[in-house]
Amino acid sequence: MSTQPIPEVAPEATIVALRGVRGDRRFGDCSLWMMWPSIILLILVIGVPFVLATYISFLDLDQFTLRSWVAAPWIGLDNYVLAFTSGSVVGASTLTSLGVSVSFSLVTTALVTPIGILAALTVNTPYRGRTFVRSLYLIPYVLPMFATALVWRMMFLNKTGLIDKFLSITHLGNGGTYWLLGPNSFWALVVADVWSSWAFVYIMVLAGLQTISPDVYDAAEVDGANAWQKLVRIVLPHLRSILGLALLLSTLNHFNNFTLPYVMFGAPPPAQADVLPLNIYVSSFQLFDFGLGASMSLMTLIIMLIPGILYVRTLRLGEVVTS
């Protein structure tokens, strides 16, 4: 039985190896320290304003007590009770604005979802001019929201706007409809937001469609599946997670939309278009009731966290089931 001699390791090599391990450990510790500038920036930008808003929401802070806001009267939960029970002089209550925001976000998301899916399906397969069509689809999304709101405001003007003129020519409706006042203001806001935001769902769905292998479609054709069966049995199940994220982000974006209603209707807006972000702006910076505005902002944050938490829990449950 032959034995192999054990190679001797030079002391210098051992020392170099130990120094390399210690250097890697020191580098790992330094990499953690390099995260502190970002953490400090997040604390200054997000953490400090959140703490201040929470504190202000318990104060009777207005234009008269703003100079010495630290010594403003402490009123506890009165701002939260006032926000839900009664509105301001020119604005609706938080409960009313919450209903408008929820309805607006759900209706808009329900309309942009099929439009985005259909648009993504039209440019999924290669054909002549597909690049131009893809670029054309992105125009509503890349335009600034301020410019989009101005254009739609002019289009919805009474009698002189393009919408009323079109309705008069085609005899589809009254040519003197008030779109920026009264109950029609809600639908004017929905139409403008659908036009400006459907491309977001289109981008998300198109990214998911590009990950489906062409072999799956070929196998479905061999089995005799038609276009509808491919959509229901292949495309939509594959896009379930991506489409869920797109619906969540789209709903939250519509719910928190401030620029579009502010530019279209001004402040204060009609009651039918008095979304929660615009109501907070009116309460805080037009009526100078900063305590009420802070309480409404915190309630908005809590409401927006609920669907996000539910979505994350759904993802975790899906990972547990698949594993």
Note the main attributes of this structure:
single chain, mainly alpha, 15 helices, 323 residues, globular, 2 domains, MetI-like fold
CATH architecture of the largest domain: Orthogonal Bundle
Could you name the ranges where pLDDT drops below 50 across 5 or more consecutive residues?
14-18
Report the helical percentage.
55-70%
The CA-CA distance between the termini, in Å, is 50 Å
- Average pLDDT rating: 82
CATH third-level topology of the largest domain: MetI-like fold
Order of helices and strands: HHHHHHHHHHHHHHH
Question: What is the approximate shape?
Answer: globular
* CATH class placement of the largest domain: Mainly Alpha
- CATH homologous superfamily (4th level) name of the largest domain: MetI-like
Structural class: mainly alpha
Describe the structure.
The protein has helices at residues 11-33, 36-56, 78-85, 94-122, 130-137, 139-142, 145-155, 162-170, 184-209, 214-222, 227-238, 240-255, 259-265, 276-285, 290-322. With 323 residues, the protein is mainly α. It has two domains: 15-49; 80-322, MetI-like fold (Orthogonal Bundle), CATH 1.10.3720. The radius of gyration is 28 Å and the shape is globular. The two termini are 50 Å apart.
